[in-house]
Backbone:
DNA sequence: CGTTCTAGATTGAACGTTCATTCTATGTTA
DNA sequence: TAACATAGAATGAACGTTCAATCTAGAACG
């Protein structure tokens, strides 16, 4: 249960020691939040898992909310990066279809789904978290819309912004909905579902106007 | 702020007074849970909104978890009923498309979405709630699968169970995903999105095998 | 009809626990 | 030694839950 591994101060090279500590805390908190939720996870639990005292947490974060905000930020930054990479790829259309399989797997993963839901639910009641979530969403959706525009142009289709936006919203809804499905119905057939999602995506890209 | 309306004992006709009280508590709790979350809502808050003392809550519910479970149950029973009605309708295919508009509106409603997310997130950490949620989901999905089978047969398509199940999962994911979308991006265009969802549903019903 | 009895409804203070946060003291490094 | 890192006990607030006391409405009875 103890993950501390008494992190050796000698091998500290990535930035300051503070950065390492911050990451330790964020990692521990992420795990706690997954199992107990944002409000069910206590600072005592997080600090134990991070291998430090409760009080020390407050050297790196002003309060528990700041930890939540930082985790949300870190999680979303990762996703925004993936989207940026996708948009930069050569054959956007095929990359998109290929990546969708990965995306389905990601959203069906129980652990990842739990944290995602925890974040969204927190955004529904915490305006600060809502702000962060919305900002990240704007980035991702802009990427998705442009990717979609290119993919559909490749299929000879030219759509206005409103149409592309709605398409993107539906695609986003499918993926994010999968995280709910995996909670409601843990026994679902992941492979069959992935195939069906790909089928819908193909159709979305190439459907007539 | 006071919803009590000192419920007149004379006009009590629906079952016992206890049933009325139980409903009062559940209504108040629902509202609290929407704004503060399952764990952020205190018994004190709920009892104040329900117009009774904290202690009295425990005459009707063993503990806070039981209130959560009851709300989840009540919410899901409503949905299961809607699905049962849909399945019993005549022109299933058109009823399905028509009802989808209603479904989109329902899932995009911020208040409804908040409670739905609260429930799912709780199911992700509370096995008892997960059990209730899964049981209700089985009912709804069975209805959806049969509805889908009939609708596709009307379009001349005959699918095996696995295919229908995956289709149903994707449709469910779209709707439930909308609740996440409305949190992430509150400014989305509801009408355009509803139209796009209907387009996807039409295609799903009539797409070739 | 008036009185008494009683069971359930209802209250609000009290309890024990847990939690986030603060404070003080000690260790470490440069 | 000066500045920073770390620990862990202390604090006070908030919470879920319990409980003994009070109220209320109607049944039983004379």
Residues:
């Amino acid at each position: 249960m103890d993950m501390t591994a008494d992190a050796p101060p000698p091998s500290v090279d990535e930035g300051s020691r503070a950065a390492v500590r911050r990451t330790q805390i964020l990692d521990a908190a992420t795990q706690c939040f997954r199992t107990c939720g944002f409000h069910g996870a206590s600072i005592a639990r997080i600090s134990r898992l991070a291998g430090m005292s409760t009080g020390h947490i407050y050297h790196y974060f002003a309060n528990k909310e700041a930890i939540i905000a930082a985790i949300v930020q870190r999680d979303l930054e990762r996703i925004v990066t993936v989207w940026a990479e996708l948009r930069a790829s050569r054959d956007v259309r095929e990359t998109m279809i290929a990546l969708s399989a990965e995306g389905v797997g990601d959203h069906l993963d129980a652990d990842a789904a739990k944290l995602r839901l925890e974040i969204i639910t927190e955004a529904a009641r915490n305006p600060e978290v809502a702000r962060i979530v919305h900002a990240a969403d704007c980035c991702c959706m802009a990427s998705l819309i442009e990717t979609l525009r290119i993919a559909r142009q490749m299929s000879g289709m030219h759509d206005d912004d409103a149409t592309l936006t709605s398409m993107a919203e539906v695609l986003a809804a499918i993926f994010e909905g999968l995280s709910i499905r995996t909670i409601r119905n843990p026994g679902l057939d992941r492979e069959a579902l992935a195939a069906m999602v790909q089928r819908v995506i193909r159709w979305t890209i190439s459907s007539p106007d």
Remarks:
- Residues 17-18, 21, 52-56, 59 of chain A lie near DNA strand D (CB under 10 Å from a C1').
- Chain A has a mean pLDDT of 89.
- Residues 9-60 of chain A form a domain with the Arc Repressor Mutant, subunit A fold (CATH 1.10.10.60).
